[in-house]
Amino acid sequence: MNLELAGSPRGRFGKSRVVREAISWFWVALAFVLIEGGVAQARVIPSGSMENTVLIGDHLIVSSAGYRAGIPFTNYHVSLWRNPQRGQIVVFRAPLPDQNYPDLIKRCIGVPGDHIKIVAGRVYVNGQALVEPYAVHHPGAQNLPWENFPARSAQMFYSDVPEWPSELSKHVQNGELVVPDGQYFMMGDNRDDSNDSRFWGFVPREDVIGTPAFVYMSIKAPGDVWEPGHLTDRMTTYLGALIHPTRIRWNRLFRPLPAQSRSSS
Question: Considering the domain 42-256 in this protein, what is its CATH number?
């Protein structure tokens, strides 16, 4: 039986190879941490609140560059120098403790200092009506309370955040909602099917994750497939898309999402 000496050339070669492999994996892990923690993240859309801008089953690459940096798979992060702009599509950690603070995607409608009101579905910011070609309204919805906000906010339901009505009233001046410092007002493009800031309040700056860059995959499937905890259903959906490619929305692949919409009066 031949024993390989630790000091032999072959032994040294084996050790150096192990060292090189370890260094290679170190750089791979470091790159993952840097990218996932501070440059980009992957997200999938489980609801129709942003239709038709973003669809259920759209898989997005979200750019967090300039917004935040953190440690992947943890809640530890620090806010950076960029702030959401009015009209921008934003991914953020929603102020919904009963739902374990889920990540949501909405459009930023109000930034700190903005005065907001909605009249018959038309959004006014600082006295000017926004031009919103992306907004979807259901027929006859202009008379609903959430399409007349905050004037009829007392008629709305606040099951997710019961304390929001009293907090909301502190920020209403002359029939308009004033966005406080360090906070943002978010709404879905599918206005009558969106659980957003009208129902649960402002989004703090430190909870902003980033903005979507592009769609890298889009699969037609029920929304609950993409909800947290449905891993088996999700894997089945991916397998089904491989077997039935028509379930993939090929025309949406690598489609860029506009960083900001022109929403002037």
Answer: 2.10.109.10
